[in-house]
Amino acid sequence: MLIRQVSQIRTSEITSETDYWSRRQLLMSGLGAGAAAAGLVLPTASTDAEASVLKARKSKFSTSEPTSRLRDIITYNNFIEFGARKTDPSYFAGALKTKPWSVVVDGLVQRPQTIDLESIAKRFELEERVYRLRCVEAWSMVVPWVGFPLSSLLKHVEPLGSAKFVRFETVYRPSEMRGQRKPRPIIPWPYVEGLRLDEALNPLTILAVGLYGRELPNQNGAPIRLIVPWKYGFKCIKSIVRISLTEDQPKTSWNRQSPKEYGFYANVNPEVDHPSWSQAVERRIGFGTSRFSPRQPTLMFNGYGEQVAHLYQGMDLRKNF
Known about the structure:
By secondary structure, this protein is α+β, with helices and mostly antiparallel strands.
């Protein structure tokens, strides 16, 4: 393979944005027959070819840090409904049908309803927010998410005074999500996560419908997912179909599966290690010349302490991890 330095590449040779977002169609049309004959498997996720541009205003909550490379963010994913390997979602998530899509909002609310995702942009103004996200496996990323505050949705349905928590549920479709139909499930399905109501109402918490100015690719949680930037990534549940307000703390998937490894709160805390690795340092993906950047110290609350530390005053964050 011939690899040329950036200084050797002419502007005319740089792939245009239009071609980049359409590359799946180009691959499938140009290579499909040959790949099939050779027994090769091409990525099938609807990552970008069909993704439409989203109109969103810039948000005051964005970090000024450089963003991760798009190609890394759409090919290195945690979405175990499509497989445990980081590359599995970009290959297999194309089987998930995301249109039409609706989200049921129910439980302890005055106005339970089913919201059609096609009308989301009309009801709630979209914002682009550049957020840091931290994975429990000691890697992180900086991504421009497009979405709207979860608080806007919750205020729209009017929580009852007895509501204390918010429960989220991922779609359950074993016919489309190959990880859900394995004989020995990795976790109990469907995937469930939860927040305290005050965490859900924090202005940093959003429901994302896009990234890098486009609709979410399937492997990144299409068509709607949660983003809670001061918590570990497994809290940011993908492909949401139900949001329920409850009085009791929800039994979340990873906490049920391994309570000693995955606490309910999942706040980024460099002083609390995962049993198998340290959380004191992290590596960013999608920077420099390699997929991972050099190690750097992990920030408490992922660097969002000024906005969220008050939520946990008086709590033992080693016990409530």
